[in-house]
Amino acid sequence: MFWKSILGQRKRRPERRFRTAPDERIYAIGDVHGRADLLEDVLEAVDSDIRHHPDRRCLTVLLGDYIDRGPDSQGVIEMLAGRMQSRPTVCLMGNHELMLLRFLQDPELWDAWSASGGIPTVISYGIRPPQRPTSEQKLELARALGSALPQRHYTFLVNLPFVYESGDILFVHAGLKPGVPIERQQPEDMTWIREEFLAYRGHFGRFIVHGHTPVEEPDIRANRINIDTGAYATGRLSCVILENEKLTLL
Prior knowledge:
Oligomer: single chain
Distance between the termini: 18 Å
Number of domains: 1
Number of strands: 10
CATH architecture: 4-Layer Sandwich
Radius of gyration: 18 Å
CATH class: Alpha Beta
Low-confidence stretches: 1-16
CATH superfamily: Metallo-dependent phosphatases
CATH topology: Purple Acid Phosphatase, chain A, domain 2
Order of helices and strands: EHEHEHHHHEEHHEEEHEE
Strand order of the largest sheet: 3-2-1-9-10
């Protein structure tokens, strides 16, 4: 069976099969949003499972949105930047990482970013933003954050890829625009898209593993799976394992 029973009544069988690359075992982790405590627990569980599969190429794939909303964005980035140096790990770009990077270039974007949960990220780097900053204060805030970001955190953020592919499976933060070839997908869609992608019942040419839109539990469809279980609010950070034609919940 392609689907293992991880959701009881909600399990579904896809219209076609998808496979990872040969001998590749992938641990996909949903949106972290500043919950370094949950990420640490999940990575410990991943590493424990990896030790039982020494004959496989084990890879951890994180789907973006490491920062904002939760209390320890700085700790999350530090943990992931370190992990990328010690274990095979792919960290994808999320819309919240894009907002941070764009704010550094255009401080007037502070209002949009702060309304989307950016304030806890700035605080995690030791900066206390004013409640209603003027344009001059926004500029000072962007400069302060740029100075507070360790170089390896900045390098981590600016080098995040938008997709990762393994066999017939594609990992992306938010989703894909239906009807557009994968090589022509735009960063804005891959990090922000919602209803147009979520409502689509056709195939994308790949089975899509994504996050971005919070769900109560991993949502399995014939053409995709959503594993963003709202960690910052629910305390549930989901991880699914994909190997060959099997998908299981860690």
